[in-house]
Each structure stands twice: as C-alpha cells, then as structure tokens.
Design a protein that fits this description.
This protein is mostly beta strands and about 425 residues long. The protein has 8 helices and 29 strands. The strands form 6 sheets. Strands 1, 2, 3, 4, 5, 6, 7, 9, 10, 12 and 13 form an 11-stranded mixed β-sheet that branches.
Amino acid sequence: MIKSKIIKHPGLAVISLVLAFIIWFIITNYRNPVITRTITGVPVNVINASHVESMGLSYSLAAGYDTVSVTVRGNRSNVESLRASNITVDADLTQLISLDTSPVMVPLSVTIPGIPPENCTANPRNIGIELEERVSKDFVITASNGNTKPANGYEIGVMTVEPEKLTVRGPNTLIDRIDRINAMVDVTNKSRSGVYPCVIKVMDKNGEELDDTKMSSLSFSTDESAIRVDIAFYKVQSGVKVKVETSGEPAAGYQIGEIVTTPATISVVGDETALKELSDAGNTITITSGSQTVDCTGAKEDFDVRVDIRDFLPESLRLAEEVTNVVMVSVHILPYNSKLISIESQSIAKENLDSTLNCVFDVSKVDIKVQGTDQALSSLTKDAVRATVDLTGLSEGSHVVPVNVTLPEGLELVENVSVSVTLSKTRT
C-alpha cells in the first residue's frame, strides 16, 4: 500500500533517490576516502627527440632532472598501491619553453591509469635539458664474454662482431667521453661454435658504463638486436710435454745429465686441425737447439734457464687460460763416469731427533751425484742408496743439515749433499 503510494507520488520518489545517493556516498567515502599521496623517484621519459635533432642539436638531461616526484589525489583504493613504475612522466621536446635559457626548460605531463590528469602533479612541473651540437663518431665494437666461462674443457678461440663498426650520435661532450663499445656475450657452459646475441655496453674513459640517462641521449646506426657475435670455441689439450734440446758442449770432462722442466707439462688450446697436428707430434712442444735458449757451452755445474714457452708454440696454438708462460729448465751437469740419482726425502733416515720435536723435510726429493765405473753406475738404483741426517742438538725452527750418503762399493759422491728441514714441537 505504502509502496504503491511512493511510486505514484513523483516527489517522494526523487527524495528517496537523493537520500539513497547520500547514504551511498557517505559509506563509500568512509570505506574508500579520497587521499593525496606523493611518489618519489619517478623517471622522466623524453619524447620527440627528433624535434631538436632536426635543428642539428642533441639533448641531455640537466643534473638532478632525471627523476621527479608526483603528487596524486584520488580514492585510497587507486592511490595507495601506486609505485613509480605505474607512472609515466613525459618531457615532450616539441614543447620547449625557450631556447634562450640554460638549461632549456620543458614542461612535464603525467599519466596514471585510472587517475584523471588534473589529479596528477609533477614536482617540479618543468625540467631542464642541455642542448648541444649533435655530432657522430664511429667506434669499433669489441666482443667480450665478461666474467662468464664456457663449458669445462673449452675456451673461447675467436670472437668476431658483425657489424664491426657502430656509428654513435649524440651531444658533443658526451660523445667525447666515450672510450669504447663492448658487445657482451654470456658464454656460460657453452661449447658449440656459432652466432650469439649480445648486449651493447658503452664505456667511458674511466672504464665505467654509461647509465640509462646518458644512454637515452644517444642513438646508434644499428639496432642492438641486429648485432651478433660469432664465437669459435676451442678444446683444451692438457698434459702436453715440454722437450728440451740443448746447444753447445759442457767443459772438458763434463757431460749433460738429467734435464727437468717445471712445470713438466702444460695445457694449450687450438682448433681441431691444430690439436691434430700436436697429437701427431706426440703432444710435445720442443724448445729447439737452434734457438740457443738452453746453451751448455763450457758448463761445469748445474744451471737453470727461464724460458717463455709461447716463443715455441705453433701459431695455431696458444696457452690455456691461467697457465703460466714461464717454464724453468734445470740442466744437471755431471763429470764423466757419473750419474744423478734422485731419492725421496721420506726415505732419508732421521737420527738423534729430540723426542719432543717433529721433523719435516722442505723438499720432496734430493738429488745425489755419484761417480764410479761404468759397470757400477749401470747397476746403481736408488734402492741401493742409504741416506741419513744427524739432528743431534737441533732445536725448534728451520735448519740446513748435511745428508750422509752410503753407496755401494766402487761408487763415491761427486759433491756433498744437504737438505733443509723444519723442526716443530710435538703436539699431544
């Protein structure tokens, strides 16, 4: 009955609608009120750069203008969750205020999905840009794998970039700061040769990468996605022996004994053809006599030679990464009718060692030069040699002590032998 009367009375119907709206508005604003919030660190996006480029100029953001704050007014549900990444702040270079100021000021526009433009305010409302003569310069692109490493047992052999050159255009002062352009490739666990995508990094003369703000002022003759790096991966060949050929003759009455290289073997890398040729040569690199690197002319005693092994590698091979290029060649010179015997230090007997001390030899083996008849030398083995050290009265610390050597009949020492030992307190 009452309902039908309200429906039939237009004034009451309007009043009911107004009251319903007021109640809805009050409830809505209570639960989702209008608030004002400021978001800081919003990056500035420069658009229509071609406008100043058409005038033969280039731009860069003045110091302190790469980010701004944005104040937003709206319902809490829309405003509270906003982040800088949700906000677009454009500096339109077609809206330059005046070319007579330095820096030149450009107004900002703010766009936030779901928020009316009149409720969004940038602070500052204008930003400064520096206008300079626009220049271009060509740079050779350098391929780099940075800190990434190929698969185990492989190394990068050759890296080539296509295109090799890149033309960079931008403000004169910024172009002058550029030192090089790197094409960075991630080769982590890669071993298959081929073409790989890259990331372009522009480096300044301090060795630092240009940040996004400076990069936005530059343009390139070739898009980054069109630049490729062709990589040839080489296998690592380890256990390559070093052979030594000597030149010259020792002094009269002397002969060349054992020749030892440190390290005894090296690791190299090369393509399949180069490694096949190395295998055919017995996996051996030879320090040739023709180089006269290891010259024994007139020698009467042992000597060492420091050799750069790179000088003896074929052009198609190179040393593996982290392999030293220095090989120490130790040449033993012996009198005629003599022989060099190496015995392990652990086989040397320790006599008269204080019971409160431990004794450790500082070397793993000791070389002993022995002379005698051909028959006695030919049958001599290290098992037939007895060596001892007398540690009587020695205290904690390092000492050089003589080695007492007992040889089979018919043999004698060419020279006295000593060894370095370290004595330390026994721990219980």
